[in-house]
Structure formats: structure tokens, C-alpha cells
Amino acid sequence: MHTVLGTRHGGARRALLLRGCRIAGEAAAADERDILVGEDGRIASIGHRLEVGPDVIGVDLRGALVSPGFVDVHQHLDKTGVLKFTPNPSGTLQGAREAFARYARQAPEDDVTRRAARIMERCLARGTTAIRSHINVDKDAGFNGINALARLRSEWADRLTLQLVAFMTPHPNQDIEWLEKNIDAAVEQADAVGGTPAVAEDPMRYLDILFAAAERHGRPIDLHLDEHLNPERPLFDAVFERVRRFGLQGRTVLGHASVLSALPRKEFERIRDQMIDLDIAVVTLPAANLYLQGRSHDMLPPRGLTRVAELIRAGVAIATASDNIQDPFVPTGSGDMLEIARWTLLAGHLRGDELATAYDMITAIPARMMNLTDYGIREGAWADLVVTDCEDVSALVGGGPDCIQVLAKGRPVAAPASPAVEAIRALEDVP
Prior knowledge:
This protein has helices spanning 93-104, 109-125, 144-155, 176-188, 203-217, 236-246, 265-278, 286-292, 308-314, 337-347, 355-360, 364-369, 393-398, 419-426, and strands at residues 16-23, 33-37, 43-47, 57-60, 65-68, 70-75, 128-137, 161-168, 192-195, 221-225, 252-256, 281-284, 318-320, 385-388, 404-408, 411-413. The protein is α/β, with parallel strands linked by helices. α5 (203-217) runs parallel beside α6 (236-246).
């Protein structure tokens, strides 16, 4: 039996036996087990001292921690990496929206493809094996973004699960009839329906357009809801009414929900209880909300996040995600979900004993939001795995690994390296 990992991602799959694993999140994490990955890229068996044939590639992991791949449930791959082309001097949400709109009017599809593929590669190398991306569809971007990402979704299917949200984006003075006319064509290419009602000129009509399309096409709803701190204009009740009317309980996700932190406690609790009743999930986006919100406050600028700790402790399904990466909305970002988990714990006022909660917010919780039925470390699931030298999930989030290896559908993923890095690595072989 072979004793080393064979090839980089690509080529024919071979059955693979990972010996001596500690499975992340399990109560008996110190209990080492074996994971057998079949030629189909799925986990075939988990157990102690599994016996396999001579054709199986064997790897002794020597007690390494194995986690399911990280899940980034809210990105904007059509925008990633455009900061150098379209800056946002104001640092505000509206400034970012205007900046990207200018860029989108002249950005070709191959530009979207190139930038998105680059960040997908970086995310995968850092352990993210599933991404849900909101893609602008509006008079500025047209269908360039969603066409490009639909192709990438197909091309990358053997290594990364990519879901697309048709993000029907309203802008001032843009014709809502255009969105209504084009939503069906957009949703046909998408896995979910999305939008941002707080900036629509007619939020109620806009919400009806989104929910009706979701019902027609059998898609879930994933909204940017109340990404602001104005307690006078929340739209939660309008959304709840439509969730009931269109039967989208358990199939609705609300991103940002920043205004919850600006509402009086009793009002927040009323909204929270309806979220639980309707099985509505929430995604917090700490990078964007820390950067964009609160700039007009002269004293003690707010963090801009939703009530992360209170929602999760009350039983609301809440995940965390990257949102934007190196664009007018967020000028930083590496595609590392462990970094996002740390930001969430710090900015969201989770406690030091809730590091495992932050881990769940980048794994099991967003996997359920995306309805990833083949996710996790269990027989039959895809072998999307992150192997690290961490002691447990608290250490994984708290400090991160010194060594990491990602497997996507059972095949090892090679971290990208420049010619300069490869040349320096070659020095290891010099006597």
C-alpha cells in the first residue's frame, strides 16, 4: 500500500485511505479513526483500522485533525478584485454601489471569469469547498456576471460546489420594469433569488417580484436585508408576510440584518421570534459591516453587525461569510474562512468559550442553508476535507493551523505558488 498522497488535483481518482484521523467537532476527538475515500470521491467508510486492498493509496495522518470543507455562504465573485479599477473614496455602502456600477457598465465577461476563478482558487486552497455567490443582474452589469459564473460553476463542479444567487440589483432611477422583465432569465441560471429591498424605490413591489420569481422557479430566497442602521425603516415584517404567503419557510436567508442592532430590545425580540417561527436563517458579514457602517457617527461608531451572539444563543441559524473581497465594498480579504470566523467572534461579541460556535458558523450551519445534502464527514458524503495540525476546532479557529492540506472530492488540492516561490522551494534539494 502506498504511504504518501499521490497527485495534485486533476487526473483519475484513486481510492484513498486516511489513517489515524481525529474528526473535528466530535466529542471523542482524541479517538483516531480511518477514513476510506472511494474512487468516486465520496467517503466510503469510517472506522478503526480499516482493511483495504493493495490498490488503495494509504496515508498515515498521525493524529491530524480532519474537518469538512469550509462553506462561504455569501460572496460576490463578480466584484472580487476590482478595487484597483474602481475605488470608493467615501468608504460608504452607497459609494461602493456607485463605484461598481460604473465599472460594471464596461466590464466584459472574460474579466469576471478571470477574477472570479482566481479567488475561487485561493478560497479552495484555504479550505473552502462550497461558495454561494450573489451576482449582480441589472442595467449596468446586464447578464455578464451571471453568464460567466454559470460557466465556472460547471467547470469547477469536480472540485468546488458553487451556487449562484440572481442578485436583482435596484439602483436610483433605474427602471424596475427592467428587473421584472429579466428576472426569469436570470433565475433560470441561478440556484437562489436575491436582492436588496432597502435601496429599492418601491420596496414592496420589488419584494413581490423577487418572491413571485422564487415561487415560479422553485428557488429559495437569499436577501440583503436592512444593511443599514436606521431604526425607522426596517423591512422584516414585509419579508415575513411574503415568506408566509409564498410558502418559503425554511428556504429564506437574510444577509446582514444590520439594523437589528439599532432596534430597541423588545422590537428585536419580536423579530427574532418570528425568524424562529418561520425557520429563517441569517448571515452576518463582519468585514463589510465593520468597514461600511457607522462612518457618519461622531462618537462611538457602531460595529455595524447584526446581533450575532443573541441570535445564535436564541436558536436562530446564523452563519458568517466573506461577502466582498478586495473591491469597493471591502478593500481587504484573503478567502480564508478561519479569518472570517475570528472576526465574527471578536466583532460579534461571542465569548472565548464559543470558538466552536464560530467554527459551526463556517461549516455545518451554512451547509444547511445551502442544502448541501452530500456534506460532512460521514459515509456517502463528498470527501471535501481540510487536514490540519490543530488540536481541536477551538485551536483551529483561535490560532489557525501551521500546516494545512485540502482534499476536494477526494483529491488533494495544491496551493498556488509563483515561480519565485517554486524556485526558493527548490533550494531544499540543493546539497
